[in-house]
Amino acid sequence: MRQHIAVADAEAGWFRVANPAVERYTRTKTCRREKCTQMPDKKKPILTEPSLIGKKLYLRPATAEDIANTYHWLVLSDPNYISFEPTVFSTAAEAAEAFKKQERSTNQQQFTVVRQKDNTPVGLAHFFGLNTHNHSARIDLLIDPDERKKGYGLEAINILYGYLFNIRGLNKVYTFTAEYNKEGIKLLKKAGFKKDGTLRHQYLYKREFRDGFVYSRLASD
User: Global pTM?
Assistant: First the structure.
């Protein structure tokens, strides 16, 4: 029989029962003035790659359900504002189905950005076009419009490029943004990205051609 060791916790009116295989808490019959303080449940482990865990957020592989539940983020963000490529509008269900059909590859991965305290998705992060020759990859980020200006974008980028540099061994991550996307440019600069150059008339927005910028960060930055 395995030995159980009882440790008294007088303040809470609990006994801690330690077992080599199982650890649990049992309540004593006597509680001060009949007001018993319940011990908090142990924090559930975060089921993702340890390098994808930050201070307030963590990244986990996105699911088709995530894509369906967050599709409205893209619509509310105005796809034509953030992308220089043609937008194919679809339903949330169609977007989820298309995600399921994507070929799995080590050269790209889409993540759901999750808030740790309540396990609520607050964004999507994506790396793709991973080049094994020059050790680079492009990244994109989309934060829930209702959760912006809370520092989530900066932490998500830091987690993602930390993973790509330290775990995947990349030397460079880069992204594109439009000249009018002032908030996006501000975020990239905060994350240590530097402007590589200008792509003239890269974006067509509201029937007007606008320049785009390339921003990148090196492992040595």
Answer: 0.77
